[in-house]
Sequence to fold (204 residues):
Amino acid sequence: MNAPFRSVGRVLMGLSFVLLSGCGYNSLQTQDEQIKAAWSEVLNQYQRRADLVPNLVNTVKGFAAQEERVFTEVTNARAKVGTIQATPELINDPQAFAKFQQAQGELSGALSRLLVISENYPQLKSDAAFRDLQAQLEGTENRITVARNRYIQAVQEYNVTVRRFPSNLTAKVFGYGIKPNFSVENETQVAKPPAVNFSPVPQH
Fold:
């Protein structure tokens, strides 16, 4: 009596697997995991940048102590980034994701203005510690760009699957929704450093 039921059960399970595969379930699972991995790498690179900020600010202060406004901007921007809990759930919340992106964009802009200062201080530009930190920051920014691009691509592919028929039906049944993505244009505008007019360095 039990053997036929087991056989029927196996057939139904096999049929369910085929149906789910054909409706995009496996694609949704795979793409969701790819997004999580890409997001983790984005966070790693942003954290690497945040860790460089204190040493960079202190090094510049040693040569340009009077640029307190810029130091305050960088410090406040880094603190704002630190108040946002970048949990895995954040990538499912468009409002929280937008706040995260804005905060990172503000830090990018503040760091750009900090680096502009070096143009007015030849001794700072020639300082070995500053050059090393600047190189580390530039390398980190490049890694951030690569990580963000991978995340953008992963989300784009996933969102297409969520919207496209018949996988959109599967997505609705299993609770897979559209995920927010980086707005490259907006962040570029936020990070764009303004024109800076330096006053002469006081003579002692």
